[in-house]
Amino acid sequence: MPTVTLGALAGNFGRDLPRCVDKAVGIIDAAARDGVDLLVFPHATLGGYLGALRDPSPETLPPALDPDGPELAAIAAAAGDMTLCIGYTEAVDGTRYNTAVCLSGDGVLGVHRKVHQPVDEGIHYGAGDSFRAFDTPVGRLGMLIDYDKTFPESARSLALDGAQVVAALSAWPASVTDRAARLPSDRQSRLFDLYDCARAAENQVFVVASNQTGVMGSLRFLGQAKVVGPGGEVLAATRSKGGLARAEVDIDTELARSRRVLDHLRERRPETYATEPTRSPAPRGGPPCA
Which residue spans traverse the membrane (predicted)? Predict the structure, then answer.
């Protein structure tokens, strides 16, 4: 595979759906001119995210979209030869899902529904039930949404399915219980970066992590989009402001180099790992995303 340019976007996308589509199309056009091969938008690019994690009211939910509707059709038409991942609220048979879709001008390449649901998100959203990698023009790819990347098993499942690149789409807010005066000092800021680097290093894959910026309801989003190499090194980042983190990489060469001596996937000992808790878990006091 030749060298490719990976792009992770940090940006603010709200409830105005036509504006979200127009803004996304403009970003796609600019990224294409800059030679981006894989562009990862934040989660909830089309219509925004929840305004609160605890007891979100139905009237404040994002618009739920038909996956065959005009919004994604417009995104696919703009994509052309580019591979891109974008997140939205999907409506299927009366159920809402937090969904990420990977597509190009040729159509849909892969779909992921968010599996792990923090706080009260499950009141209004169904949960996905699997992690699957799929082939794209930039290599084999898998997707995570938000809280999914907190759990090592999520990215590991994708890596075992052959993913070379993990696209982690987020609408990840600052702490809602212990908010810091400055976003870089927020505990969720630290965890967001830690998870990106850990998931890349432990699986020896590229992680392309996007995130929302700005404010939606009571949530203030972190930004911090980044491209992480298979050794856990940050190759490009936006910090807390909007922008595009870009890195030009040779995926096959870099993955082979990272696994030349220590190959984490090959050297696993799955027969020694507990798959269920051996002791009762402690009472739940609130998820890490709070």
Answer: none
Q: Residue 283: pLDDT above 70?
A: no
| 3-class DSSP state of 221 | strand
| Residues 6 or more apart in contact with residue 63 via CB below 8 angstroms | 15, 17, 47, 89
Q: Read off the pTM.
A: 0.93
pLDDT, position 290: 58
Q: Which of 89-98, 188-197, 244-253, 278-287 has the lowest mean pLDDT?
A: 278-287
Amino acid making up residue 89: T
Orientation of helix 17-33 relative to helix 70-79, angle to 10°: 10
Query: Would you say the C-alpha torsion 178, 183, 188, 194 has a positive or negative sign?
Result: negative
Strand 139-145 with 134-136, pairing: antiparallel
